[in-house]
What does this fold into?
Amino acid sequence: MQEISEALVGELDLARLLQLVVERLRELLDARVVAIALPAPDGLRVEAIAGDQAEALLHASIPRASKVGHVLARGRSERVDSVIDDPEVVQEVARRFNAVTGLYVPLVAGGAPIGIAFAHDKLARDPRFTSADLRLGEHFAQRAAVAVELSQRVQRDSLRRVIEGQELERRRLARELHDETGQALTSVLLGLKAVETAEDVPAALAKLRELVVETLQDVRRLAVELRPKALDDFGLVPAVERLVETFRAATGIEAQFEPRLGERRLPSEVETTLYRVIQEALTNVAKHAGAQSVSVVLVRRPTSATAVVEDDGSGFTTSDEAAGGIGLAGMRERLALLDGRLIIESDPARGTTVAAEVPLP
It folds into this structure.
């Protein structure tokens, strides 16, 4: 039980955690099938299952007006020696699980049931579960419930941080659209009015054309910041090449790019994450580093992909990072969603190295 508890606490991915729970509980109970159902809008949904017909029954829907639903609502464990004789058992559901006997154990966290584990049919001459099985299931469920609640909380927090980051980005883009593009389009309207009354119409049209070109470039720049087309069409290397070229032209900082990813493209979510980390790191160099040069390296290894951004600027201290002005928290959150990690080496006298590593499937 101690080994199992340590394994549960160490797993934060909810799907893998639930599967681990049902597999371990099936071993402990010596049951034909064990499943976990969590509340869903239309009742209860089987989120993990081990044993007979596991693939067919995964994600199956169970009505709340069933034995599983009633036990969850009561928050008390129960065992059933004959499911066909229990009035709360929905026989159609029981037939889908080929159930003869049953054991139902709510997962309770913070005094409230958050899900339910249930088992059918011991693998013995007598398929009925015993009182000892019930106590064992309850003991295991207490530990499993804590791990499930922690996993759900981590996922909610991660989603909240992602949403907050998206909203911050939307607000920034809205400000730029209002302040830059909006003003430019207003100037276009004024320019059109000026053309109507201008004595030198060709000169007025030339100025207006120049203004339209600048506005179009601003809109294209915002579109690239939202999602560079090259990233979808051609992959990470062309997208980063364009990003580095744009950075060099906009800042005057010498920038080098060295791709060592091979011929095969990385998974889409990995490409997006590494691109955003490089983008944020280059933004930090432009705003804070006072650097003369920067290098970007992409490396692919058998089990991981790494992006390294290194500059020769003024660097920063841990107090600067804690102040939250250099975007490292957002980088870490992006990487954490892919089980990646961020490594920072910085010194006010020697510049900064930012390395983002993401595991590959």
Notes: Confidence is low (pLDDT under 50) at residues 318-326. Residues 285 and 291 are 7 Å apart (CA to CA). Residues 2-157 form a domain with the Beta-Lactamase fold (CATH 3.30.450.40). The first helix runs from residue 2 to 10.
